[in-house]
Amino acid sequence: MAARPLDVAFKALAHPDRRRLLDLTREETSVGELVNATGLTQPAVSQHLRTLREARLITARSDGTRRLYRVDTELLDEVRRYLDGFWTDRLGRLKAVAETIDDGTTP
Amino acid sequence: MIGLAEAEIEIGAPIDRVFELWTSTEGLTSWMADHAEVDLRPGGAWRWVHEGGEACSGAYVEIAPPRRLVFTYGWETGRFGVPAGSTTVAVDFTEHDGGTRVRVRHDGLTPEAAERHRIGWSHFLGVLAAIAGGSGPHDEQEMH
């Protein structure tokens, strides 16, 4: 089954430690800082970061010997775009119906 | 507070008529859904079944004819894993140039839950938490 990006993302989000890691990576943050901030073990943090990266919720870059992680909002924007499109489409239909009915009943 | 989605349109029809299209089963089935159930009172349930059978439902929060309508909202079929009633839609109607301006704002949390979240990123993270919470607590166990 080919998982859709949004499904993968929401699955990744269905874990409180991973949501906490996202919250902590609003600014670029190293694994060591995340270990200190969360009290999780380094292997646990690394595993969660991998899941978040595979879900496109976080990005990583190298800075010398360190890896720095930061939240990636692109996918979140995708959710927003979907909903914007839904409501815009519905309001277009509403306009068409409202103006048609109005034309038919107003002298 | 950050809106999950926003949309606005100007309609050449009177405000009472446009409000009625949002709040009656006959009105809703003419533009929103194939089938609609409406219990128009605060706390009353609503349900829309779209083309293809996907259903959305929630409950009315605020009804102020013909200017404002607020209801909780979610997808029963699990789109985005957003459970029914887990998000909030506010619709504002204003008279404009002899017609009506309609503004929809779709926020990611119920009003009660939103109060617990700070403005900005924290709020949006709360949105995601609510969404994720609807798709089952842990990875492989529950599938929609």
Provide a compact summary of the structure.
With 107 residues, chain A is of the alpha+beta class.
Given the helix and strand composition of chain A, which structural class is it? alpha+beta
Helicity range of the residues of chain A? 55-70%
How confident is the prediction overall: mean pLDDT of chain A?
A: 83
- H/E topology pattern of chain B: EHHEEEEEEHH
Distance between the termini of chain A: 57 Å
Average pLDDT figure of chain B: 75
H/I helix tally of chain A: 5
Percentage beta strand of chain B: 35-45%
Shape of chain B: globular
Largest interface: A-B, 32 and 38 residues
Which sheet architecture does the biggest sheet of chain B show? Answer: 7 strands, antiparallel
The helix count of chain B comes to 4
Q: For this structure, what is the CATH class of the largest domain in chain A?
A: Mainly Alpha
CA radius of gyration of chain A is 21 Å
Uncertain runs of chain B? 112-125, 131-144
Strand order of the largest sheet of chain A: 1-3-2
Give the CATH topology of chain B.
Answer: Alpha-D-Glucose-1,6-Bisphosphate, Chain A, domain 4
Overall number of domains of chain B: 1
Key features?
heterodimer; A: alpha+beta; Arc Repressor Mutant, subunit A; 2 domains; three-stranded antiparallel β-sheet; 5 helices; elongated; B: 144 residues; Alpha-D-Glucose-1,6-Bisphosphate, Chain A, domain 4; seven-stranded antiparallel β-sheet; globular; disordered C terminus
Folded structure, characterized:
- The complex is a heterodimer of chains A (about 110) and B (about 140).
- By secondary structure, chain A is α+β, with helices and mostly antiparallel strands.
- Chain A is built from 5 helices and 3 strands.
- Chain A has 2 domains: about 1-70, Arc Repressor Mutant, subunit A; about 75-105.
- Chain A has helices at about 5-15, 15-25, 30-40, 40-55, 75-105; strands at about 30, 60-65, 65-70.
- In chain A, helix 2 crosses helix 4 (about 40-55).
- The radius of gyration of chain A is 21 Å and the shape is elongated.
- Chain B is an alpha+beta fold and about 140 residues long.
- Chain B contains 4 helices and 7 strands.
- Chain B has a 7-stranded antiparallel sheet with strand order 1-7-6-5-4-3-2.
- In chain B, strand 2 and strand 3 (about 45-50) form a beta hairpin.
- Classes of the chains: A alpha+beta (about 110), B alpha+beta (about 140).
- Chains A and B meet through helix 1, helix 2 and helix 5 of A and strand 1, helix 1, strand 7 and helix 4 of B.
